[in-house]
Fold:
Amino acid sequence: MIVLPSLLDTDFYKLTMQQAVLEHYPNTNVKYKFTNRKAQETNFTQEFADELRASINATSSLRLKKDEKKWLQEKYAFLKPQYIEYLSNYEFDPSEVDFSVNDGKLELNISGPWHRTILWEVPLMAIISELHGQFTADQWNYDGQEAKIVQKGSALAAEGCKFADFGTRRRRSYFTQDLVVKNLMLFNNCVGTSNVHLAQKYNLRAIGTQAHEWVMGVSALESLRHANRFAMQKWCDTYGANLGTVLPDTFGIKAFFDDFTLYYASLFDSIRHDSGDPFKFTDKVIAHYKKLNIDPNSKTIIFSDGLNVELAIELNRYCSGKIKCAFGIGTNFTNDFATKSLNMVIKLYSVDGIPVVKLSDEPTKATGDKKAVEVAKWTFGIEE
Structure:
């Protein structure tokens, strides 16, 4: 059984999105689905299922601690008093998670009010990842892991790369991520971690703004064709000039640029790359800023798609003199062991009964009901 150390053992963008959901869509109900992108390579056992159920049940005892509440209040003024009070009273409800293991395959759904169920994704993925490691890799250990992460941090720092730990969801274990963050923080180029609990523990900046989930949900509740525009506007309504990173690939970069006008491009300081060729993406972003008469060197691309140290260094060199950049590295930091990590996601599936999808700039990353994906592709003029 996996017992998480804190309610804040999650990624920061879950808190920021939760506040926005409470503000704009407090009565919305949603469903999430688990997808194992390489299901044919994975065999989940009944013993795994038993441990997963016990771990899910154990989350019901997690509560926001007094020192955590005080830290959030003092550190993040854009988290409003009413939201922090809500979080103080929050507790996980295991009945919102339904799963089964059949023929080695894991099927998992989360259902309930959006403002409640939004916090399940990250801890569930972390639990599944850790249990998978325990059941499939009985020979691995932590020998050499500290030296490996110091070597990675040194290589990134030597190249002037600004980087952060984004490794909560697919970590080998909480202990691994703690070890990673404890060593990365020794480098001035480490700008923080996505994990809120570890940010507090090591006095680091908690990093994160929004995920595809935000744009996907807005697409059902406001407009599919202009979901990006509505998502950006609602975000600005909640956060103003704070948390100025935007995610462009939910329905493909072309659809995003149609809505990323001078107004929004001026408001948002950075743009996150999460799918597709990162070099082509960089060129497109620079061209769009120039089209709007915005100096690309005043903006930042945050790369976060399956990064390793070598790719981050290559991208840093590519961006040099053209546009600022930073790197959120996940699995390569927190699950770089001999055995393969799970290639899994938990994505929003429906909002108030309306199917939602993510198209992405990488076809293999598209998620959602097949017919809904076809409708979205037609809406955005995307050909097979």
Observations:
- The chain has 17 helices and eleven strands.
